[in-house]
Amino acid sequence: MIVPDDALVFDTGPLRHFAAQGWLGVLRFLTRDRPVYIPDVVAFEIEEAAGHISAVRGVLEADWIQIYRGFEPDYLETFAGYRDRLVVGSKNRGECGVLAIGKLYGCEVVIDDATASTIAEEHSIKLTATVPLLCDAIRAKKLTTIMVEDLVDSLLEGEYFLPFGRGGFRQHVITNGLLDYEELGPSAQ
After folding, report:
1. Going by fewer Cβ within 10 Å, which terminus of the chain is more open, N or C?
2. Please, are residues 9 and 38 in contact by the beta-carbon 8 Å criterion?
3. pTM of the predicted model as reported, rounded to 2 decimal places
């Protein structure tokens, strides 16, 4: 299987939390112009999470998310290289698969994990995360700032780690240069 270079390859965290908090449809809307893939190890992690939170099963049932089953030697070798740096017990296998696909096919990966993000940058893998993805949606006028604030606060309520607390989205994106006041809209003034 070849993953197109315009694809977004998601790690477990964003998908699991968007689904658990009822925002998976928004994620589909935001990615509708691009193919979306997950490696089989992410599918496995999602399956495990669905045992605790049934809404997460929606990720595996989504017809817009393709599962990459990596059996090619190049994929397995690349995966193994990331495994040595990331895997602890049974954790972080998803990130290894996402990074391997990004490296092999030149597509963009969606990872919120700091260590995996650092590795992506070191290996020149195109990288984004939940907050920049949402900022792009505001900039493109696909979502309003108020909707994104509600969405991220909901993710935080579901115990998703983001680089700010409840109510901190605007301050974070302004402080970090992800959006400016004009892009946030009139209510940000």
Report:
1. C
2. yes
3. 0.91
